[in-house]
## 1
Amino acid sequence: MKLNRSLFSSSEFIVFLALLAVGAFFAFTSPVFLTKFNLLNILLQSSIQGIIAIGMTFVILTAGIDLSVGSVVALASVLMALMLHAGVPVWAVILINLVFGVAVGVFHGFSITKIGMAPFIVTLATMAMARGLTMVFSDGKTIFDFPPAFEFFGAGQVGPISVAVIIFLLYALVAEVVLRSTVLGRNIYAVGSNLKAAALSGIRTHWVLYFVYVVSGISCAIAALVLTGRLGAAMPTAAMGYELDAIAAVIIGGASLMGGKGTIIGTIIGVLLIGVINNGMNLLNVPPFWQSFLKGAVIFLAVMIDSLKNRPNEA
Amino acid sequence: MNPDPVLETLNLTKVFPGVIALDDVSLSLRPGEVLGLVGENGAGKSTLMKLIGGVYPPTRGSIRYRGEAVQFRSPKDALDAGISIVYQELNLISHLSVAENIFINRLPRRRGFVDWARLYREAERILAESGMAGIDPRAIVAELPIGVKQSVEIAKALSYDAQVLLFDEPTSSLTGPEIENLFAVIRRLQERGMGIIYVSHHLDEIFEITDRVHILRDGRTVVEMPTAEASEELVVSRMVGRDIQDIYYKGAHEPGEVVLTTRGLSDSVLQNVDFSVRSAEVVGIYGLLGSGRTELLKAIVGARRLRSGEVLLRGRSVRFQHPQDAARAGVIYSSEDRKGENLFFGQPIWKNETYIALQIGRFATLGFTRVAEERRAAAEYSEKLGVKAPSLDTDVDHLSGGNQQKVCLAKALINDPDVILLDEPTRGIDVGAKLEIYKLIAQLADQGKAVVFVSSELPEVIGCADRVYTMAGGRITAELTGDAINEENVLKYCLQTTPSGGTAT
Ligand SMILES: Nc1ncnc2c1ncn2[C@@H]1O[C@H](COP(=O)(O)OP(=O)(O)OP(=O)(O)O)[C@@H](O)[C@H]1O
Ligand SMILES: [Mg+2]
């Protein structure tokens, strides 16, 4: 009984209801929506956003933010494309790509913990720098033509399921286990909930902060791998605005920008909600400008319901 | 003869999921009167304050203010009506200055812009009127020790032109001079006809400042009487529901060899501190606000950057770089500031209690938590410390202040440390539960542990410590043992700013 109460009043559950409601709406208004093909497509579309949002969840749990994700994905994509064209073997490209993700995270962690810069500012700067470098390296042009072994990660299938979806779900599982069942996961919540108490409780808060930004960097690297493979191209303008979708998904999923609150499950539901809305509006031929507006409105509603529920006066 | 009450509660009841926090409480407050409100931890005192202050609506019952029924929908409503409250937990915005906090939501403006000069001038005036001229209105709150924060909170409440003032344990982090000062202000306001409710676990304060005392137990009114007709024994027995004698307790230990020593410890506050504690010993540290007592404990565990000096554990130099190093070596510090530095709000009791333990490799295998074991230990220590809560899964936010304090102690003791540094361990804890904590401290020493505790309560230091250090201005001013541990000595040395090198026996 106790479990039920906490389950049904949790933020995740409310967002899940919203997901069902929106899904039901599109199921009634579009004949295509509920087909297996379309549902798998939504999952595929959501996998890249989902991978990025998982990294973002770690960061937001510590009361931080990572605005650089979209640009870092684009930069990683272009770097991989250039390496492939230079004849670097696929396995080495993937490895170097992951190292690049780690490096971005270490840079953020260093700036935040050692220099004491605000996460918002540091990652805003990286956002601009990474996008700039993307343009410089690619000369503003799209790069095509990669070995099939490379494209497998974005475009491959295992039976009816895309490799991209499998990567997303496995990554989510690992993230969930880390947050739920490890000391490190517990420490991430602690750092976001009360930084001073965390340090006095013996938590090495700097390490924790390094870790979450590295996770975000790695998430971008993985997302870039999947995205580039799927498109079969590295576009310097790729992943524009992904940071906002990722942040929105995390917040819709019940996390707080103040830190200490949020789950991977919630984030995934948030990502799916955004994915379903994008997909449904396309099916219904909503004009793109209205799509942007409506998506914003739904995000607003979802977060508003949660905030109203958590107002101390309603206790 | 009696003027009409300015504030009345009628059959006020508040039910939280699983708890009846307040049950049918009626009381009235007349202008110019100080009403004391006492009761055990979780008796419902803070809940009553919050209902009056519009923090949450009552489940049943009503509130009458200046003769009319009122329903405040938010703290702002209550404040606008003239009810100003000092809540038990601090609510200051830590990255703002003292002045901004005092005038939050009503910063003085000129042509649409904040008039900074006037803001600081007004803040200075209010601080001076509240007898806190020593506080810099430009200081950033985050950097202030908790006692000063509490003073700022009081100044803020006083700065409103209120008819009714509610104080919920306003002195829990204050020391003698600030308390005297607060009482002077209260007496002045009383003469001006203000109605005041005063909540405290310090019965001496209740007897000094209140006219009537209202006793709560388990959310219900036990009795209300004029303070002059009450005695401390009577109040305690009605509060707790049984008699309590002899609340201080020294145990049966004989101090052994020296376990922890500091030599010439200096940092931005501390000046050349030499300190030591033996196994099977309880050491008390007494000092006023700003004396450096908290800083000393933090410096020992590596939570402050030292300028010079060293820490020796069983004769070996350790110089911990981080509280985790100290915890691994069996030295645990528990902060006095439960909301700011100790607890994780939004998390359940059991997780709060095992945080330090997880860092030193307990309850975990290869980095994975062993939840069942954690919960078992948390249950054991919650029981030992008498944490009153619906369940182990209750978020610490929903506990009464005293019960939060017990969770803080459980969090430290669960590690079975050899050296335990407690900063105001009984802050906000009721008289009955204090006795249990004193017993526990004595038992720890009986088991051979080295216990150090900082306290602002003189009787507690005198009653529980085998040896006492007094501190002032970042220095140790005296070390007292045996019969030299008495009120006169302690007070004398804690006001002394130049070191006398005084040791007295
Ligand atoms: N927001 C809340 N949600 C659930 N239970 C609560 C909440 N606030 C208080 N309680 C419960 O109500 C009871 C009364 O709490 P209250 O804070 O009023 O006690 P108190 O008399 O102020 O105690 P203390 O001396 O420890 O401060 C306690 O059992 C507490 O756990
Ligand atoms: Mg209280």
## 2
Amino acid sequence: MSNSKSVSIDKICIGEVAPGCRKVDPILIADGVKRQFGGLTAVDVAHVEIPRGLITALIGPNGAGKTTFFNLLTGFDKPNQGNWSFEGQNLAGMSPYKVARLGMIRTFQLTKALSLLTVIENMRLGAQKQPGESFLTSLIRPLWIRREKEITEVADTLLKRFKLDAKREDYAASLSGGQRKLLEMARALMSEPKLIMLDEPMAGVNPALTQSLLDHIKDLKSNGTTVLFVEHDMHMVRHISDWVIVMAEGKVVAEGPPSTVMKDQAVIDAYLGAHHDTDLGTMSKPASTRSKKGDTK
Amino acid sequence: MDILNILKLALGEMLSPTTITFVLCALGLAVHFGFTGLLNFGQAAFAAVGAYGMVISIDTLKLPLFLAVLMGLLCSIIFALILGIPTLRLRADYLAIVTIATAEVFRYFMTTIGFSKVTGGSNGLSQFGAEFWALNPIPEGNYNFGFVSYRADQLYVFMVGWGAVIIGALILRLLMRSPWGRVLKGIREDEDAVRSLGKNVFFYKLQALMIGGVFASIGGMIFVLNLSNVQPQVWTTNFTFTIWSVLLLGGAATILGPIAGGMIFIALISITQGIMGGLVELGLLPFLTQPDIAQIRLLLIGLSLMLLVIFRPQGLFGNKRETQFNV
Ligand SMILES: Nc1ncnc2c1ncn2[C@@H]1O[C@H](COP(=O)(O)OP(=O)(O)OP(=O)(O)O)[C@@H](O)[C@H]1O
Ligand SMILES: [Mg+2]
């Protein structure tokens, strides 16, 4: 069942596969990133590297600190300490919009559709380099209308792919929870990011569509986009990821290719508590437990 | 009671300089609140800053009118920066608190005796209108339009004022249909989402605050030019809330809304005044005296606004579909 064209380990990782191991070609490197909420240490990542051009899954039980880690990396939250860099550029202290402009785009676990904008306007907003977004240029339509057409074309292609083309002119507020997730992901892709960070992209999306989205994520990879995603659905993790990073209680407790990570004792402990000998790879995916999150407004 | 006369009066009021001022301030507030989601409760101060900026430039700096107007605009932009830079990175409510407080501080400052050489103190200033009136191209005399007639100076103010409204509205229309306007609307819906798409949200909010402030300051200038008089006690929180009423009446996220809202609001005030005045005169409202009417009238308007916001939250001219999802 696992990814058929899996990349061999020594092409991803230098030396022994272990939590925080160095990568052959990292796109994102985080060092000593720590975030405390009062007495609670939500994130305490000593060292982690995300391999370029691959699909990496970030997994871990509820409250492991995955979302907080995303927030820190993208500038939406400030760590107590730590450094991280994207393509060699230091990101610590950088504001979220600048991070996004570098080509590192994230989505949110709690979906952020722009309710009173239409679906197509949501999509257009995701595009970069629209001269009409600066005040003076915006007044002169000929200066931005051509770019607007290009943007709209890209948007329509993506909408079709995400099965949202019928909703093009509707307000995002009228979409269902799953559709909003899709819209957010499609919108994030508008800027052709170098690294896309998806926080539970499949939560609440119906299984039939999941398959087509997984294919889309694989396409992204073949176009050179790096994907980092958080997901509780082990099936999806096994199916599309080249690399899995496991967090528990704020720390990276394991990483490696999906087939081995799921059997890792530390991972099983993190998920199921000690004294348990289930293989996570065989864990089924009860739809009801995983669609709870992400739909709330 | 002369119903026809009451209606005539109302019709006249609908185009009056006061209406123009309300409309311009409400258009500015539409940029702030309706399109960007900024809670500005100091629109009176933006108008006042523009008005005082212009008047003091004429009165103290002896600048020609054209430059003085530019100074007024510049003042309102600087005012927006002063209010915006510390607050726009924070939660929305901070701007609300700071604007309402700053507006009051500004008004008190203008009444302070210490600076009255420049500001005119609580008496205000009135020696600045000469150049404005001298520019009036319309020959002296009375001009009849069916049942209303205007003097040349009144016509002049209409032309300048409504000209400003029309040009302003057209510019807003261009802006709000552009990608720039799309970013503003995105910020209104969810600023973190817009940030995650690589837009400098803070800068857009600052721009919106400045542009809305410029509209208000033009409104303020026309108000004081028409009266040839600027006084601090005009620019109260009452003024601000009137502007909010106009905006909500017409529809916050529209351009036509504030314009029509301003006219209807003024007409309502004028008609209720006329009718109730008439009723009191006829002795039909024995428990009321003429001075009470102004108060009761505002009460009625407040009540109808509450009903409007409850039953038609998009305003008279807002998009119904858009508010079906009000959360
Ligand atoms: N703003 C906050 N204030 C206080 N505590 C927080 C805050 N955000 C997160 N936490 C805490 O930090 C920990 C990590 O939360 P986080 O949302 O990162 O978990 P997660 O791994 O994304 O979980 P899930 O899989 O349920 O989404 C949790 O214990 C949470 O209670
Ligand atoms: Mg999470």
## 3
Amino acid sequence: MHNVVQLHPQALLEQRRNEQTSAIGMMVALGSWGMMFAALFFMYLGLRAHTLAWPPPGLPALPIALPSLNTVVIGCSSVALVRALRSMREGQRRPASLWMLATFVLGLAFVGLQTLLWWTTWQQGLTPSTGTLGTVFYSLTVLHALHVAAGLAVLAYLLGMTLGGRSMAERVTTLRLCGMFWHFVGGVWAFMFVGMFLL
Amino acid sequence: MQGVMTPADIEAAQHLQHIHETPKSFVKHYVFSIDHKYIAKQFLWAGLLFLFFGGMLAMLIRWQWAYPGEAVPVVGNLLFPDTQGAITPPTYNTIFTTHGLIMIFFAITPIMIGCFGNFCIPLMIGARDMAFPWLNLLSFWIFALSQALVLASFCVELGSAAAGWTTYPPLASQVGTPGLGQSLMVLALFVTGVSTIMGAINYITTVIRFRAPGMTWFRMPGTVWGLWLTSILNALFVPVLGSAGLMLLFDRHFGTQFFLTGAAGGTGDPILFQHLFWIFGHPEVYILILPIWGFVIDFMSFFARKPAYWFRGSIYAMITVTVLSAVVYGHHMFVTGMSPLLGQAFMLLTLVISVPAEILFLNWLHTIWKGSIRLTVPMLFGLGTIFVFGLGGLTGIYLGTISTDLYLHDTMFVVGHFHLTMASAAFLGSFGALYLWFPKMYGRLMNPFLGKVHFWFSTVGLTLVFGFQMLAGYAGQQRRLYDPFQYSYLEGLQDLNRFTTYCAFALAIGQLAFVYNFFYSLFAGKRASQNPWELGTIEWTDCASPPVHHNFDRIPVVYRGPHEYNHPEVLEKLGRDWIGQTEEFDPAADAATSDEVAATA
Ligand code: HEM
Ligand SMILES: [Cu+2]
């Protein structure tokens, strides 16, 4: 039942240390990723600063309801993932799988709602080539959604492993890294929500 | 992991890093290797190949500036059959653009960071491998993919990239450079960026986590410090270039308008690209010099047989430069019409960088002052690096000052400046490193005479070529001109340009000494002993030449810094002028220092 506790103390120590090493690597990676998004934001702010009015005259304002809902969705998915990791650490297979499943479904819902958002704006006549608004809106949200999709792929893999009865102790590190990435992607969304839809 | 060295800690360190089994299959050993030493060699070969490629492009540029529009001798008809061997203006644009990009991203970066980062970091800090060996493998093969993209960009219609290495839109948009080549090159930059970041993640984490017991931060050699700081800059600023490249690709292919305006049709802003490019670009120049500074700190001490003068000061200086390099990028944009106040701020910050640079410089000179200098090949290359870097650094001050830059901007003076600092210093430093570590990498010695021939051709050649370029720039010659002498005010510079070209050809011919030496030594060089240079860093004292697959049977314990030369007590008791970092000398004294370190850690 409690896989982790069954490990030999020396092995446990090693695993902890290796996990820590991986986490440091992930933090560096996320720093990099953050700079990539920061550059995109820089571009958005630069372009917006040049425009007299926002949204630029003749273009529809971006919707607010859907993105708000999506903020809640992705926030909940992060919480679910925290719970999944905790259960996995404690070696509880069923709750771990369920929380992971919840994360996955919420993430999928996020991508679905984003697609709906794009569809709506497209209907209103906003395309990637309609001025700076279309340019930044589609580029930023699509790039972000691709990151969510990548996170979903890893989650699906981990879920499969866990349901397939593989040792959970070995997957704790991967789930933790996946979680770091997931929270990061959620954080980027929060920035985008405030910067692009609220303000 | 820190300076604490209880037996339990030393024991724990042995278990933290597993001993990977030596791979038996050919593919795992030679193609998809996860061994940092082998990946280093892969980067070396990939980089040297493209160094040759980029060098040939440089020769074409030089020919064009000496004899504009005339048929290129020997290879002309082969390369440009349509024009009987002459370089056309569009071809010329492609040549200087790809020369810059190939040299920076696909030649120097893999050799200096890919090869020596991989080879030196684990060995010099006493680790069995990188923290993430699989990521390391991936990093090389993604890099190889990016090189393949570069080659592919030459094979498509309209040829490869032609918008300058800075890739400014609108020139780099579909309007300025139609054709797939430009896009493929930008994509190659993105892909190579991914590889670089993967490398950086590995280097940063490995240094933080895998230092041998007793290897405190200030016991790390300058080489490791330089590579580590460079990795931090890589991790933070390469993604900015990646972002800018992505947006450029979106503009080119998905109809967005980030950088398109005016005649290019759109409401974007091309100047913002310049911001993003230089937010990356200025740190990039320090990315390419920090490892070199690290090498030089070590080489001066190694071969003057003296401790590095104020080693901590040098490290603090490097850290300061690393931080400052993030906030000076505006000096590349003085003429874009930025607010004068902002310009002044950038000018001030830029000039402040010369203070830490000066500290490093003085420390190097102090280190060799009254040393028992051994003029080995790596030492010569180190001294050459100091010389060309000094010249280049001094000319940076003229460019960093707005009033003089307004005149000098976009002239050959800038080209000379950055070739002395970035190109020459990186070139000489990297070759110095190759001469130093070749025996450890391949277990054979290189021929010192040929090495010295290579050194003199390179150092004198580089100094003359780029010195004369600065002269031409000072006289008003703009950079990137297809035929500078069609302007009557530049006609007088034709002889200077020709002479510079002859120097460049001599420089290229001198490289043959290296090529011969490298291949000959690889197969038939004298066998190297474990420590042919008599150095004290771990890779020489604790590893065979070449090291075994897992580097160390037991992770070594470190007792002192990397530069203990001519210590009187060591001389007296051991009868030699050096002592290894891992050598137990006076157990009582060593234990005392380690307790001290433990107390401060
Ligand atoms: C105290 C030191 C330095 C100062 C004050 C300085 C200043 C400058 C300035 C102001 C420019 C812009 C000139 C213009 O375009 O008008 C410039 C260009 C450049 N510098 Fe430096 N620099 C210094 C050291 C270095 C170092 C160490 C490197 C590389 C290792 C380097 C590489 C470059 C490159 C690559 C460019 C221009 C690239 C281009 O426009 O294509 N510089 N430098
Ligand atoms: Cu700069």
## 4
Amino acid sequence: MTLMKKLNILSDAAKYDVACTSSGVERGGSGKGIGNCIAPGICHTFSADGRCISLLKILFTNECIFNCAYCLNNCNNDVKRAAFTPEEVCTLTMEFYRRNYIEGLFLSSGILISPNYTMDLIYQTLYQLRYVHGFHGYIHVKSIPGADPVLVEKVGFLADRMSINLELPTADSLRRLAPCKSRNTILKPMRQIQNSIDASKQELALLENRLYPGRGELAHWQETPRFVPAGQSTQMIIGATPESDFQIMSVAERLYQNFNLKRVFFSAFVNVTENSDLPALPGGPPLLREHRLYQADWLLRFYHFKVSELLSEDKPDFNIFLDPKCDWALRHLEFFPVEINRADYYTLLRVPGIGYKSASRIVKARKQSVLTFSDLKKIGVVLKRALYFITCSGRMMYNTKLEEDYICRNLMGDKTQIPREIRESGYRQLSLFDEGMIAPDSSASFQKIIGV
Amino acid sequence: MKVLICENSIDGIFSGVYRAYASRYGHNNIRLTTSDALESFELFCEYEEVPVDPECSRKVADTLRARLGQEVYYDICQAISAGETEKEQRKNMNKAEAVYKTVVLGLSMGQGFNVLNCLGNPYVARVFQLARSAGNEAHHLLGFLRFSELENGTLFSRIHPRNNVLPILAEHFVDRLPMENFIIYDENRKTAALHRKGSGYLLAAVPQADEEFMNRFSEKEQEYRQLWLEFFHSIAIEARKNPKLQRQNIPKRFWPDTVELK
Ligand code: SF4
């Protein structure tokens, strides 16, 4: 089989993995080999679905002995199979990287022969990249569920980020749709990786203070060995199983707190196997729902929100018409208005239309001079959202009422509440109602909002 | 009012700043403007052209680095490298003036490294805005720029940026590809960054580019482009197809210089 054909099959099979970021590690060039990393990551292009392409995202092989119902590669499926050799993956990575097509490699795999056999192939590939080719670019690797901890450890010292997909939000769903996997084969290595990251960080601190002589592995590919420096991430499929947003976000929150994950990704379910256990989703993948989950995820990671503030057993799903922050603000009007020239950073973070960057700019700028609404605009505050919730030197921007219905009506008139990319991606309103999300008072107003 | 006219470049504007300080007219009585500015001459103003003087420029740079810190210095340089359309130029405060008055404010403050936080100040706000737009484009191009392998193994890239981001890009790629010979050619400014493996880079004016040389690709070049195209197309999810989002994320003006979208 030609390399072209393999690349076709094995990138096609990798595309449902959503993570493609190259962020989280800053590493200057070595002056010798090839490659460096910058902390915010770099997008190299955007595919026809509008998603960022940063890494060469491929499977090592799409052969698989497992039978996960949602996955095209499952062993009962009749699809074309292929497998790379470690050398082929290295050549593609190096030649793409030199031409600045990519930031690095995202290597995942189906399970060939056994978890250990597969994990070892991945190890060999990474080893060659780091040692034979002197590659210092970004590597994200998927750990194979059920692989030996020793192999996981070895791979972790070659990768920048590792991930193990949680796949589905609850153990029940996992049992039903991925019978070869279990919470245990997922959470155990997740814990192991977390512990190794911590240990590696402590070692590094000791090394820097010269209290510890190091591992003695002199010829490591980077000066000081670091285990998964960009941290670990995971992914959940959204909409294949009946969990509520509340359940999903609570799982995400626990993963951040207990496993110290860098990112939890959500992947709107695309029904590729036409398995009768899975929902048909005639309206296409639940993109708006995925979008709301990501917005809420930001609120957890950068805005100090807790899931219990956003959702509850009684209100288990996000409002589709308003972003979660606006939705929260409307239910907590007692918190507003916030005075821009006095409120502390954490209070500013809670105002719709004020991002975390703007909040910190406000705090710095107001030390130098009293801020006005036009200053806020320059700082990057989205005034059309913020204006209902703030005062500058005691004054509102316009004569607006601090009243739920009134603000809600005005905010919903703002088209960006349903992001353009979703409004315009042939997103069909039906799918939203199908999923039992809250219907608006009148469907007429809904149609006005999304402009259909 | 005295108006100093300086070249629209880092050295040009820094020379202007130096001259403004040296003249001792008082900062309230001096204004700076770039020579390409579209303003009409005013009656009661005295105009003076300031020649580019690398020595004066270096002194200003050293002062800014020492008193305002490396970060502020970097942002100011980035603001100067920002390119503006005629419309933007007409609408906004002149770049040289914004830089000059920001420097004056910074040097008068106790903690000069805080100067770019004073976003309530219109001069600072302008510098901040310019730096942000140049910085954004530079960051975009770190990803969107493409190299092709020429016959002799050199990597060659052609770009058409709005802002003068070549130095930022060159520094990034020298660090990333230390063992490659590469050329990045800014066709809008007819300038190229040249890098020889194992060394630093230099910027050169290229008034007459050798098209023939730039199009003699290596044998393997086509093959890797094809592989990249294959990957680019098969990685997209059909059910999520969204050309508008794609265009929003990678604006059309970058497309012709890529491999996959041209
Ligand atoms: S383990 Fe499951 S999800 Fe992974 S490739 Fe095999 S069938 Fe697909």
